[in-house]
Amino acid sequence: MSENKTLNNASINWHILNWVAIIGMISTSIYLTSHYFDVHFPTGLVGGTLCDINSFFTCSTATNSPLSNIAGVPISLFGLLVGIFLAFGYLFKSDEAEGTNHFVLLINMVGCLVLFAYSLIGLGTLCPFCTLYYIFSGLALFVFYKHSSLRTPSVKIISGYLVISLIVGGITWNNINEKNSKKSQLAKSLIDQFYKLPNLGKPKTDSPFLVAKATEKFSDAPIRITKFSDFECPACGMLSKHLLEVAKKYRGKVSIQYKFYPLDTACNGALKRQIHPYACMATYIAYCAPEKFETLHHEIFEQVSAAEGLSNKWLDDKAKSLGVTECYKAKETKEAVVEIINEAKPFNIVSTPSMLINGVKIEGVLPLKQIYIILDEILRRAK
User: Fold this and answer.
1) Which region among 118-127, 146-155, 313-322, 331-340 has the lowest average model confidence (pLDDT)?
2) Kindly report the CA angle at 227 between 223 and 231, in degrees rounded to 5?
3) CA nearest 86: which of 171, 144, 28?
């Protein structure tokens, strides 16, 4: 009978590779678990994260999907446990632990492949940190495949893993229930306030300046958000980050349109004093490139938050790079922007940012968690 291959006989390079995989699994799982709680139970004004690179490479879509959790407990927590089990099994070497961990890695990889396919096909996105976890899991399994023929789990050890998983999952589930209870109390008060506010309807024209589009006609979307915004307003930039998160979370259910309201006397006759001297010019550029608005508005807000801020040179260069210099400087552009600004009058817009959520005006920047509460209730009532 041939002797079983074990990891004990692997070279030092393979041991280093295995530890890289284990540490990678643990690290990515910690981040993903933290991200899950940040998304579902945010504690303040939050925007994107380093895991949300763009509309395709984003963790938030996966985090908000049905397969992100088991009874509310994030599946990344179980990925973390798998990494910890591997680490302990590697530190306290035995044939039983090695065989059990090899078996666990096989089951884990099946789960990784299912989630990877679901992300690409079902969600149309790819979670960067989830993908890193899949890669590290594959790397660990490859090390076991090359150097271990032990694949039979020990009943004692696998039972211990299950008990630990149930205990950790149970504690987390209880903690999540407490968070949900507090969230429910906040939600009731917030929803009552929202539905007591008057419904002001919507602007007379739909805007071509969109960051999310659920339906061809703006008024047909279940959730309709109109943002009155100024490009030099820092709070407007913060709300824009929130609305990008809203666009991801409620994709296919929300339409978000922008209405320009620069706090600049060069184009806004409602102002009594100058506040943002470059706001009108930034608006002219955005007006001239509606097909690139989603990217462009983000670039302008990023420039505003940079140390050098907006300038005539930056705006002229941006208009030139977009090929809209003639439109940017045209008298007709200013006239069109003024018409858009005047659409704010029926809603008594006096500051930015202000937004209409299904006709209800909200001034300033709400915490993202509060926006989610309102939008979830809108969808619930729509059903």
Assistant:
1) 118-127
2) 150
3) 144
